[in-house]
Specification:
The chain has 332 residues and is α+β, with helices and mostly antiparallel strands. The protein folds into 2 domains: 180 residues, Alpha-Beta Barrel (N-terminal domain of MutM-like DNA repair proteins); 138 residues, Helicase, Ruva Protein, domain 3 (Orthogonal Bundle). 26% of the residues lie in helices and 17% in strands. The chain is built from 8 helices and 11 strands. A 5-stranded mixed β-sheet has the order 1-7-8-5-6. A 4-stranded antiparallel β-sheet has the order 2-3-4-9, sandwiched between helices. A hairpin with a 2-residue loop joins β10 and β11. α4 packs across α7. The radius of gyration is 20 Å and the shape is globular. The protein starts with a helix and ends in a 6-residue tail after the last strand. Its EC number is 4.2.99.18.
């Protein structure tokens, strides 16, 4: 499942490529035909991400809500104009930099994805993007337009030069403004949305009154928005926090540290498109991590391997129907 950084990156690409333009909407699969007919011909006015959900506003008080869930993905084609605040097509980082160095050339990971140019959608096979900073004639590039329909496309949104195909979402619905507000009100704070001070206080208040294990609270989207399995495991390790500790037993300063770490990690994720959770890496170490997804994290996906800090075997268990990775020594 894509985590919060991916959805924010996708929303930013919609802002760059669709907002202010007339939408051409269709449902090749047929399951969203009525909704597509409502969207078709309307101007896209705004877009925002909150946690793992994206909300696209069209004229006439119509909102499209999309939750990708476990299997959903957006496939972009045509001219894709990059948000200047995130990694650009040549792989250069943006204004903030976790690793403290710049690399201009692409770095391909073991799945064949250019790690520094990814827009952060969940699967490489469904992200076919030609990124460019200036519009070029599609006919001159020899591209087929409109792009052919591949697979079960729930919704296709198009402008004159850009297409976005949605497959396999958990939710793809139209909402009124009031329904959007009600949906967002049920979500926990997102570091990239709203007042940063109130977001932190809200997170601390909720966690500190819950008997629920902190590992479950971090995955509860009504407690905090955007955290998934990878960030959950990594954040708990980075605070050396036992995942089974009830929320109300986690010291307040540690709860605040968890929130501030999430603020930092999602910013890095939005910029790079990758869930890089290891710090203080040299340029060579960072390049190696970018080339191998399993080398970007402290504990995630490392069951049975030695802890990078203490050497203890990383444990794997199921909690809340999801896999949890943690170090029984460092997080005792």
């Amino acid at each position: 499942m894509p985590e919060g950084h991916s959805v924010h990156r996708i929303a930013r690409q919609f802002d760059r490529n669709f907002v202010g333009k007339t939408l051409h909407a269709s449902s090749p699969q047929g399951r969203f035909a009525e909704g597509a007919a409502v969207l078709d011909g309307r101007e896209a006015l705004s877009v925002q991400a909150v946690g793992k959900q994206m909300f696209l506003e069209a004229e006439g008080d119509v909102w499209l809500r999309v939750h990708l869930g476990l299997y959903g993905a957006w496939d972009f084609a045509g001219e894709i104009f990059l948000d200047p605040t995130i990694a650009s097509a040549n792989g250069r980082m943006g204004q903030t930099n976790q690793r403290g160095t710049d690399l201009d050339e692409a770095i391909y990971d073991d799945a064949g994805e250019n790690s520094l140019a990814s827009i952060g959608a969940p699967r490489r096979a469904r992200v076919h993007v030609r990124m460019s900073e200036q519009t070029k004639g599609l006919a001159d590039e020899g591209l087929e337009w409109p792009p052919p329909i591949v697979g079960q496309v729930r919704l296709r949104l198009m402008t004159d030069v850009t297409a976005a195909d949605l497959r396999g979402p958990t939710a793809c619905v139209l909402q009124t403004p009031d329904e959007v507000l009600a949906t967002i009100a049920k979500l926990g704070p997102d570091p990239l949305v709203g007042d940063p001070i109130e977001n932190e206080e809200r997170f601390v208040r909720v966690v500190r009154k819950k008997q629920t294990p902190i590992a479950l609270l971090l995955m509860d989207q009504s407690v905090v928005s955007g955290i998934g399995n990878v960030y959950r495991a990594e954040m708990l390790f980075r605070q050396r926090l036992n995942p089974h500790t009830p929320g109300r037993d986690v010291p307040e300063d540690v709860v605040r540290a968890l929130w501030r770490d999430w603020v930092r990690l999602i910013a890095v994720g939005v910029e790079t498109g990758q869930m890089m959770t290891m710090d203080d890496l040299s340029a060579d170490q960072y390049r190696a991590a970018m080339a191998s997804r399993d080398d970007r994290h402290w504990v995630y996906h490392r069951a049975g391997l030695p802890c990078r800090v203490c050497g203890t075997e990383i444990a794997l268990e199921e909690i809340g129907a999801r896999k949890l990775y943690w170090c029984p020594y460092c997080q005792a």
